[in-house]
Structures are given as C-alpha cells and as structure tokens.
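Teaching assistant here, posting this on the class forum so everyone can see the example we discussed in section. The complex has two components, and the goal was to see what a joint structure prediction looks like when all of them are supplied at once.
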Amino acid sequence: MKKYIVKRLLHLIPILLGITLLSFGLMRLTNDDAVDVFYDKNGAVSEEVKAARRAELGLDKPFLVQYGSWLGGIVTGDMGKSYISGRPVLESIMTKLPATVELMLVSILMTLVFALPLGIISAVMKGSAVDRVIRFLSFVGNSMPNFFVALLLIYFLAVKLHLLPVMGSSADWRSVLMPAMTLAVSMGAKYTRQIRAVVLEELGKDYVAGARSRGVSEAVILVKSVLKSSLVTLVTLLALSVGSLLGGAAIVETIFMWDGVGKLAVEAILSRDYPLIQTYVVWMAFIFVMVNLLADILYHFLDPRVRLGRGDG
Amino acid sequence: MMNSKKAAVLAALALGGAVLLAGCGGGEKQQASKEKVFTYGTTAYSASNENAGTNPHNSYVGWTTIRYGIGETLFRFKDNLELEPWLAKDYQQIDDNTVKINLKDNITFSNGKKVTGEAVKACLEALIKNHDRAPGDLKIESITAEGQSVTIKSKEKTPALLNYLSDPYGCIIDVEAGEKDRIVVGTGPYVAVSVTDNEIVLKKNDKYWGAVKPKLDKIVVKGILDGDTLTMALQNGEIDAAQGLPYASHELFNDTAKFTKSQANTSRVFEIDFNFKTPELQDVKVRKAISMAIDKEGFTKVLLKGNGAPAVGPYPDSMTFGGKAVTASAYDLEGAKALLKEAGYQDTDGDGYVDKNGKNLELRYLSYPSRQELPLLAESAQASLKKIGVKLNVNVTDNYKSFRKNGEYDMFANAFVTAPTGDPEYYLSTHYLTGASYNYGFYSNPTMDALGRELHNAFGAEARAKLAIRMEQLALDDCAYIYASHLRMSLIMKKGIKGLTAHPSDYYEITSELDKE
C-alpha cells in the first residue's frame, strides 16, 4: 500500500505542473492585467505609475520567466504575496480555511442526516406514494441553483421569521446553519437518489434473496448487508463533496458573507490577484488528489475485493 | 419487521430535524448591554476594492480611513466640493511653488499625541515614499516644519496641491506609532480595534479633538458585496444602515416610519465617448444628432428609478464649474432627425434605419456590466437611437478592454469620478487633451490643448473654474462626449439613526455627528 500511496503522490507533480501552467496562461490571455484592474476600478493614474507597479510585481517580464519565478518560489515554499493585500497568500488561504472546513462539516452532516434515511425509505418503499414524493423533492432540490436556495432561505428564515441571521459571524454559531442548509439541499438531493439507487441494486442481489429465504429479518439484511455494501458509493460521493467544499462554495460564501476560501478565490479572480489564484489552484489540485487517495484507501477497507493499484497505469 | 424498520428511519429523520430545529429555535442571543453599537453594511469595503485596512499610504485604503472616521485630512470638501480647512487652520501661498499650511493648535492623534508640524511632515514624507499615486499628484520637492506649520515646496507649479492633499491618501496619521495588525493611529472620532478583509470594528476616540464628540461606543463596518444580502440584512435588522443597495431594492425601504434615506449627487458621471476614428462620427452633425436623441430624463427617472441626476457636462450641479455652468443639446428627436438629414442620412429603403450611399448608419456601442447603470444606459441609448433611425449594436461585456484595445467600438460608455479632489484638472487633462490616457474617442482640438496648458498653470479656484467651463463647453460644442447622468449616492438607514449623511465627494460617511437613538 505504501508503494501505491507514494506513486499516487508522485502523480501530483505532473498534475500540478500542468494545471498551474494552464491557469497561469489562461489568466494572461485576457487583455487586462492585475495592474489595469487595480487602477481602472478607482480612477485615472498615469501610465508611469502603472509601469512602475508592473515592474514591481514582475509583470513586465516574459510569460515563461514569470511562471518560472513563481514555480521557483513554490518549490522553496514561498507561494508569493497577494497583489492586493501584500500579505503572504498561503497565510491568507490558511486564515480562511477554518470557516470553510466548518461549513463543509456542517453541510455534510446535514446532508447525511437527510439523505441517508430518505434514500433508504425511498428504496425500501419503491413505487409507493412516499417514494414518489421523495423522488420529486430530490428532483426539485437538484434543480434549484444554490444562489436561489440561499435567497429563498434568507427570505423565509431571516427576513420573514427572524429565526437565523443573514450574515456569517464567528460570534453567532447559528450563522453557519443557513449556508450549510443551502449546500445540503442540492447535495442531499443528489445523495438521496444515489443512495436509493445503490440500496435498490443491493436489494435485488442474490445474497439478499438467499438471506430472505433463510429467514433473516429485513432489518438485519438492510443494516448488516445492504448498508455496508452501499458504503463504497457513499464514500465516493463524500470524497467528491469534501473535495469541492474544501475549495470553498464561492456563491454561498459570498451571499452569506461567510469568510471562507471560496469567497477569497472569487475576489482574487475579480482582482486578477495572480499569486492568490495560483495558490488556490494548487490547493484545489492537492485536495482532490488527497481526498481521492483517501477514498481509494477506504474502499479497500470497506470492500476487501477492491485491490489498490490494480490496473493503475 | 417492515414497521420497525420504518420507525427506525423515521427516528433518524426526527433526529436530523431536531438538530436543525435546535439551531433555529435558539433565538437571538442579545447581550444585555448599554453600549451604543452601530452596524454598517457597505458594498464599498473589501479586499477586492483594494481598500481593506486603515493605512492611507496603501493604494486606496485611505478611502476606508476617511470614510469610517479614523483619519482626517488637512482640508476637506464642502457640499459644493470647495475646500475648507479641517486639521489646518489656514494657509498662505508663498509663491507659485511654495505653500505654508498652519495647523490648528488643539488637535491630537487618538493616542493623545499632539499633531504638530513635525508630525504632519513625517506623515507626508511617508506618504510620498510609500504611496503609488501621491508622488505624481503632489510633486513635492521638500517639506519643512516649524511649530504648528508645515511648508511644502513643489518641484513644479501645482495649483491643485491642497485639493490633492484632501484626497483620502492625505489623511494625517501618526507614522511614529506605525501600523500594527493593519491599524494606524489617526485623528478621527473613531479608532480601529480590529481589521479584516471584510470587517472593521471601531471604538469611540475618547481623546477626539473636535467640538462634536463621538457618541457611539462601537461601530462595526461590514463589507457586503452581494446586493441582495445587503438588502435582506437591513430588512432583517442585522445592520443599522446600508451603502450601495441595488436600485431595485430601494422601494423596499420607502416606509418612512421605519427607514430614512440620505442622498447626494456625486461627481461619478456616466458618459459616452464618440470614437473620432469612425468615419461616420467625424461629422459633427451626426454626433450632435445622436447626443440629442439620448433621453437623459427618461434614463434617470425610469431606468435608474430616480437614483441619478441628468447630466449636462462632466461635473454635478453642486460644483461651481458643473451643471448649468455649461450647456448641451437638449433631447429633441425631431431636431436630431433633421440634423441626420442635413448630414445626408435618410431611410431610403424603408427598413427603419437611415442610410447614406447604400449603407445604414450602424454603430458599435461598447460598455461593461460591473456598474449596474451602464447596461441600462446601453438599453436606453439603443431604444432612443432607433427612434431616429440609427442602429446601435450593443456590446456590454466584462472583457471590454480587449475590444477597446482593438478599437472595436464607435461609442464607449463608462463611469468615471470626475472630481475626486474637487478640482477640474484631473478629469479634463485625462479626457479632453490630445493623446490623454482616458481619451478613448481620440478627440483632438488644438484650442482645447492650449486651454489645458493654461489650466495647468492657473492659480485660484475662480480662475481655474472659468477655464474648466470653457474647456467643458468646447468639448460639448464639439460633441465629443455625451454625459448621461450623475450617480446619486444613497445611504439608507433605520429610523433613529442620526448624522449619517451622503456627501457628494463620497468620502465622509461615519463622522462624530453619527448617533443612534
């Protein structure tokens, strides 16, 4: 397993090189650079001031020189400083990470609290009115974009009922509930359908028929066999969700003023804050590789038939 | 068996619901406190606005320092954007390159240290050493201090020196005290106690020098970039006042028993530049006809829902060289059609658009969506020009700079703050002169260039205003620009908030006058 893990970690190197070069290039394809955006937003400054700023940031150098210089910094652990705040970008991301992790954990908890029972009920009661209602609700939840769910929740839970605050605040623990609910609606809808599908698949397998014929109770079949077999699917879903949520839920964080990584990334993109964007890209790649690696290792423990590294290129 | 299983999953559902309800049912924890706390939501404070922090010597952070009552400048702008002394008592223009500024005697920084000539000198020297724009604006050669006065010698004639010193970057701070955790020591009625990219917490400056003492114990300024969130935060009572609410939300706060509004016309103008490289637009009759077809009243009243004032020239009515000091062609569709006819344009093929030599008068209109007014202006212009038979192909895009760089536009609409320092030269020199950095229409008139040089060397507000009016009128007569409207800035607040007033300069929001009943 150690060999497999090392191999997967080594894969990270070409992945990082590829995506950072791509993002570096894409950012520079636009006709305006960080200096244009920085000054044009606020008023007129002379070209001399802009040129001095470009030289200070190294933006006057050729593309590959800029990339090489950035890469050299990364290798030595220096991710650079934000063009806007002037602070180290790694520090900026790390200070926002706790909020993002908190939102991720609460939203995943909410998702599981809803989706697990609903998915199972829907599968067990397949074809019934309850199943149809659950499937309809999950269809609705899946169809609604996050920003719309967010605004609906704010309107009803904050403006009309005054139950929860609109804005994120470290001083009020309740402020995590609405952004987490927003994320849980769409995630929960997806999870419910997936759990329903996998439970149904398992319920139709021979071993379930065999257990039933041996007189094993439905509850035991469901909990000890079907649910256990469904865990692999659940881990896959969780790996994808954790990966994307650790990158920050940009829209939800912006709407709820949740001071996380996603909001930081959006602001960095709007300001063409290249060092921050690049570090964010590295962070996302790292997270996805690590989470998927963890998921693969978990598969092995959940289902010993899964062999790590087999068929891996 | 099935029943017990169902009961189990229902129990799980109930557990999930209980978790959520526990969260919802807690009710608001209000600390019993007699502290007067004011919470202010604004779209203008954020890292992406380049103003997160309090040190005015960093990029645009001075806007934060001055807006939220942390710092003050030597001079400040009155409602008509003329200067008046603030930390300064008065000044003497020694010669064309030298000005002596005398300071008030009773001013202290929030740490209790007296504001002396030496302290101001140290601050201004740090400003020109660290700031990107200030050295070019101020052109300072040397500063000397003596008691309560500072004498500034410029490298060249800088008639607008005092105006530039009143820019937010000119806030006087105690540079000896330095900057800790993005907090500097200013002279304002409030002191920053914590600063993040999204929020500033302020407390009362107990040592404030002004006659009117600050009344609030704590102020929380929250940067809220999403307009809907800002709207609902005010509706939900989480904030006491809001700056930057979307126009569409304003009507939600029309109930005067619950909310009050303060508005001011600012010098942010929504303008359209004619591209003089476009052959059709080289005819002044065509430019004039288009100018006459823009319905400014309709645009501001209907599309901006009254949140704008029709503009004549680049400056608002409140300024001596703005508003009615100049004249522009009035809205007149019939007159516009007649002018187009004179220019040789008629609808010969009955397709609804005027043509000449078999070619329709079709123009490319470029703008960007980041200011909510600009897409509306594009719609309005397109509809208006259709009435006189001019086809406008609208391109409102975030990537407008690519199109602009490639010259792919006949008209370019943008928003611009024309008088950030209360002086006219800034806008006129960057827009009207041949080859100027913001002259996107490539407008050129030797008379204008000569007037520009004259303005650059003219001292005295009155003389400069007269020259500015001549330049504006010349540009309007040449139909180089269309000035559609000025932004009307609005602050909307809960009933009971006093002393929060929108200012035409957009600089002063939280002052010692602010109070909460």
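For the discussion questions: The domain at 90-270 of chain A is CATH 1.10.3720.10 (MetI-like fold). Chain A has two domains: 2-75, 90-270. Think about how each of these relates to the inputs above.
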